[in-house]
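Researcher: Sequence recovery benchmark, item below. Answer with residues only.
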């Protein structure tokens, strides 16, 4: 493997020292456009030492380029700029993308600020978009102020919403921490049947099922959710006939028994934990599985809703060894 990182970063660092806006794109673009840096058909690696790299215009990294991020090295996207990555990424559970003006796409396709067209990513992580990661190898328990909603939605956009809209298979999303959620997270299948996903979307926790009192991977609504805006009526809403496997993830609200009756009284709180909103009730061949997941503390009208044009049909979804509310397991 050829590593051109030193040459590239010398150019980037020269630019950063001279340009007050800290825009690394001109130097990166010039370097990427120079054919002498790319032996025909051979992969290269670009190494980013620890620092912030301002991205103020669009840039694409081709399929033969591996981006290798040191801890605390990240691309800071501003003013509508976007990054397309067609090759591998080497990074730990630290932030590598910062989007200063992230907004949600109401169509459900995704913000397209970070587009991952790579076929060589085994998984993506919310930590890459700034969600709090584990501490010393243990799952972090976020405090209520650490709202990870935007980081989580940006992850789902890049791993599923945008890729499926472009005809690519989804990338698994791995959770390693308890992430505070303050607005509905969504994954959305394209309306056209010809572009509906065939590969399942995978959301998995890497440390197993939530045991009582621990802080393993979860999507968690604190009490009271004073800043909540659950316009989708759930912590996670799955829209369309989307095959999925969600395993070893806890969907949790009102974890404090002392406040058990207070949720979801606050305005804007979700009415349930997960909504599976299927367009075609007859699509029984679509496999949707919750495996060893936990649904804890719901005080609304249900834990999980499966909505179809023909009404509620929970039998369309499989619950395999899941923990329901107060410790009961159901198959």
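Model:
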């Amino acid at each position: 493997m050829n590593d051109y990182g030193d040459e590239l970063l010398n150019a980037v660092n020269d630019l950063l020292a001279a340009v007050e806006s800290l825009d690394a794109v001109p130097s990166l673009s010039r370097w990427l456009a120079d054919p002498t840096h790319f032996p025909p058909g051979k992969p290269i690696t670009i190494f980013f030492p620890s620092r912030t790299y301002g991205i103020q215009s669009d840039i694409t990294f081709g399929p033969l380029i591996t981006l290798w991020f040191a801890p605390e090295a990240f691309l800071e996207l501003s003013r509508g700029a976007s990054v397309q990555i067609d090759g591998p990424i080497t990074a730990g559970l630290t932030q590598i993308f910062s989007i200063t003006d992230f907004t949600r796409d109401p169509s459900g396709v995704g913000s397209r600020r970070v587009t991952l067209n790579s076929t060589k990513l085994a998984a993506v992580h919310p930590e890459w978009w700034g969600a709090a990661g584990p501490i010393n190898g243990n799952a972090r328990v976020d405090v209520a102020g650490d709202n990870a909603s935007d980081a989580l939605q940006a992850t789902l956009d890049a791993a599923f919403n945008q890729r499926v809209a472009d005809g690519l298979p989804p990338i698994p999303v791995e959770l390693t921490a308890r992430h505070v959620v303050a607005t509905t997270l969504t994954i959305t299948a394209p309306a056209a049947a010809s572009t509906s996903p065939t590969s399942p979307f995978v959301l998995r926790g890497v440390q197993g099922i939530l045991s009582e009192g621990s802080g393993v991977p979860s999507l968690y609504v604190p009490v009271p959710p004073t800043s909540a805006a659950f316009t989708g009526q759930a912590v996670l809403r799955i829209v369309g006939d989307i095959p999925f496997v969600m395993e070893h993830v806890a969907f949790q609200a009102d974890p404090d028994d002392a406040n058990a009756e207070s949720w979801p009284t606050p305005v804007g709180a979700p009415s349930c934990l997960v909504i599976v909103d299927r367009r075609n009730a007859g699509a029984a061949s679509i496999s949707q599985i919750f495996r060893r997941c936990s649904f804890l503390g719901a005080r609304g009208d249900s834990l999980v809703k499966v909505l179809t044009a023909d009404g509620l049909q929970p039998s369309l979804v499989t619950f395999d060894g899941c923990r329901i509310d107060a410790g009961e397991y159901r198959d």
